[in-house]
Amino acid sequence: MRILVFNLVAWCLILYASLSILGCSSAPSREPETPATSLPPPSSDRRTETIPLETSRPTYAGPWEDPSSPLYNRTIYFDYDTAEIKPDYIPVMRTHARYLGSRTDTRVMLEGHADERGTREYNLALGDQRAETVRRYMLAEGVLPDQMATLSYGEERPADPGHGEGSWRLNRRVIIQY
Amino acid sequence: MNRSRHPLLLVLSTLLLWGAGPLEARLNIEITGGIEAAQPIAVVPFGVSEGLIPPVEIAAVVAADLARTGRFKPMPTRDMLDLPTSRDQVDLRDWSLLGMNNLVIGQVEPEGSGFRVSFSLFDVFRGDELASTSILSTGTGMRHTAHRIADIIYEKLTGQTGVAATRIAYVTATGRGDSQTVTLRVADADGYNPQTIVSSSEPIMSPAWSPDGRRLAYVSFENRRAAIYVQELSTGRRDLVASYPGINGSPAFSPDGRRLAMTLSKEGNPEIHVLNLLSRELVRLTQHFAIDTEPAWSPDGRHLIFTSDRGGSPQIYRMSASGGPAERISVEGDYNGRASYSPDGRSVVMVTRINGAFRIGVLDTERGITRLLSSGTLDESPSFAPNGSMVIYATIHGGRGVLAAASVDGGGSQRLSQDSGQVREPAWSPLMQ
After folding, report:
1. What is the mean pLDDT of residues B261-277?
2. Cβ separation of A150 and B245 shorter than 8 Å?
3. Do A98 and A147 touch, CB atoms closer than 8 A?
4. ipTM confidence
5. What structural domains does chain A harbor?
């Protein structure tokens, strides 16, 4: 079922891609802008439109996708310029550590992030230290080394693009990605 | 980890990007400051043989290059009373009355399948001809020829090598999250002729030039892994040089081009390493529980400076290029990072925090004095021009990431922005032959 749906989506994309390429190569230049008062183009000139196929997701990856599951909360937030874990986030890590302890074939990526203040490479190091701190805690809680990998994005993938503390506090984080 | 993507989808997304057109957004340069003492110079529109249509207005490019240095104030063409194109048409007294110190005239003639571009530079007061050269140029290479002429004039008048014929590498980003497109681009120093050398839906960081200007090292997160690549610009061929667990960051070529300093955290903590690019031997230089990152070589290749928070806050340290003890060289402030040496090795440019604002500072390493070059709040990624006269850096303007360049002596400044998207992490190329 999943493969079927995937193929449908893929073929739609192929169709769209070929249409857009054809459209590009046959039109020598962009249409000139018309003043707002002019008439709309004749109806025979109407562009072809594609409509995306709506499907419900055929599979369910795991309980971390379910908002009612305790595993749904997968983010640990940090204070500025530190990799120290705040006591508030111990229960989050413990919940995931227990789940991973019972499913030793499940693997996670610990994704470390920083806010935009400070240099990019230093923030990469900070994100790495944050991910590493979470990894060590999870190890101590019994998660196997092979179940975890870390990746720091530094400030490159902010959750919120703003330039103030309201955004920054959302960006200083480690996400447990299943 | 259900992160795997179908290869067909990747191919399709590449096609879609390509189908969207190869139009590259040029960097727009805006002069944001100059100095009162800028020297008046007249660059007269070059004469053109009858019937010839050169692809570039050479005098306009030369004048703009000279203006950007902050040291010259070219006369607008409309204020010129006469437009001489050869020596016998020049009367230096006229230009003296107009208050000019120097005059440049020139000509473009056809030669073979290209052009011969000749020019002369005069000292208006002494009545001397200071330089007279001709350069053979292709049509497509005409802008580059104009930059070379600007550099010859600049060097003749200031005694310093010009940088108009150099390039800058930078990162651009449009869109956000999973729909973002990040590119690494190389453009001429005046923002023209931008070319994408790698494009990705994942972050690209930390471009670093090889000393011969032919390769760029950078960090790419493609396939959701961090890795350092070295890419040859003329062919697009690239080598994967580091892809360890953890950080693979901050590449920096040694002055001889044979080694690459980098930050790796494969042993659990960010440490400075040096990779021999020929033998692939990897040596760890630091070993400290603190963050050690952002290595940069001294011009003689004997030292490395880097950022470390081993003393409680990020500061700049220096150690031998073979490792060993490190001494702190940044003196003021509670945050100093991303330092790199000036070409003469006497100062370093870095990011420094002043009252909560991140600015660009130049530290005189002999006298221990830091001078600020920028006035933003999130300024970063400073990079010296290869003649040491200017620093290019990233800043925020109108809520968007743009580049800015400032004269080290406090003179001219410019802003370089794209019509859309973010521009960041500039790296000024070495001098190109």
Report:
1. 96
2. yes
3. no
4. 0.89
5. 1-26+53-59 (no CATH), 63-177 (3.30.1330.60)
